[in-house]
Design brief:
alpha/beta, Purple Acid Phosphatase, chain A, domain 2, 6-stranded mixed β-sheet, 5-stranded mixed β-sheet, 11 strands
Length: 326
């Protein structure tokens, strides 16, 4: 029951005017920057084959219209929202949830396109960002009124129902859907946190050397197991640590210091990769690169919440360039 109450703390503390201070678990030894470096994990399930053309899309935040505009810009869908990209690979780097009212439509859109793309020889990979993780934790501080209404009809039974009875009434439906073991949590469980397509690494916040040694495949598996688990299950400690790969801004916030670029270089060497693509931090100047092109920052605030213009990153081998809507 203590584990169940852990999740309930998020539910009862959330408010629209008082942001919840998230208490993240201490960084485990295996993820601590100064801990002895173990051998790199041999789990390579996060790796996917190289693709002739890749389009990466940043944070969407509940705006399905902006998501569709970005997909059209990248040549992924036609005017009827059907897959038209052929063998194209699309990677969306997380944060489809919160701050907007179109969450169910966005989840359904990307799931449908993943199926259509696979049938056409392409692929669509949507990653989990910090906002997906927060919702499965029960942290709803950025959920809109419509976001609660959309899931008001979700129900639970057994231990889950008893837990939800103690949550604010307006949050119970969303909690039933999003807490570990819920219907939406089960859908998010199928999404990785980090992947590598050919020599390109994709993640929401950033991959540090400790994450590589812990194992990106291992992290993906642990997140999947947590989301499918009981409603009170805590998130994997490496995921909610201050230096988690969904939270760090080492490569995305301003001009990275030399030591950050040096660590990025070591990460890419360990992964036999050429570049990393990250979201999480709005780039007011548009998609840009840092660390001599080793990292590309693609969160342009394209949702109506931020008022940005749709822009995507196109990767063709070593040719990398932003595409921006006219």
């Amino acid at each position: 029951m203590k584990r169940a109450l852990w999740a309930l703390l998020f539910l009862t503390a959330c408010s629209k005017t008082e942001p919840l201070k998230v208490e993240r678990a201490p960084t485990p030894a295996s993820a601590a920057p100064n801990s002895p470096a173990p051998a790199v994990s041999e789990d390579t399930s996060f790796r996917y084959p190289a693709a002739e053309r890749i389009v990466a899309i940043g944070d969407i935040h509940g705006d399905v219209a902006a998501a569709k505009r970005a997909l059209v810009l990248g040549g992924a869908i036609d005017a009827q929202d059907k897959w038209s990209g052929g063998s194209l690979v699309v990677v969306q780097t997380g944060d489809q949830l919160d701050r907007g009212d179109d969450e169910p439509q966005i989840l359904e859109l990307f799931e449908r396109l993943a199926s259509e793309a696979k049938a056409a020889g392409g692929a669509v990979y949507a990653l989990n960002g910090n906002h997906e993780i927060m919702n499965v934790q029960g942290d709803y501080r950025y959920v809109t009124e419509d976001g609660f209404h959309d899931y008001a009809g979700s129900r639970a039974d057994g231990e889950r129902a008893r837990l939800l009875e103690r949550a604010p009434s307006e949050q119970r439906g969303r909690a039933a859907a999003f807490l570990p073991g819920g219907a939406v949590a089960g859908r998010l469980a199928k999404r990785p946190v980090a992947i590598q397509v050919g020599d390109n690494v994709f993640v929401h916040g950033g991959v540090l050397e400790a994450h590589v040694r812990y194992g990106l495949g291992r992290i993906n598996h642990e997140v999947e197991a947590w989301m499918q688990g009981p409603p009170g299950a805590p998130a994997p400690s490496i995921l909610v640590a201050e230096r988690s790969l969904i939270w760090v801004r080492d490569y995305s916030d301003g001009i990275p210091y030399a030591d950050k670029c040096a660590e990025l270089g070591r990460v890419l060497t360990l992964l036999a990769a050429k570049r990393m693509v990250v979201g999480h931090t709005v780039q007011k100047q548009g998609i840009n690169s840092a660390c001599a092109g080793k990292v590309w920052r693609i969160d342009v605030g394209l949702s109506r919440y931020y008022g940005g213009k749709p822009s995507v990153l196109e990767i063709r081998g070593d040719q990398v360039k932003p595409l921006t809507e006219n």
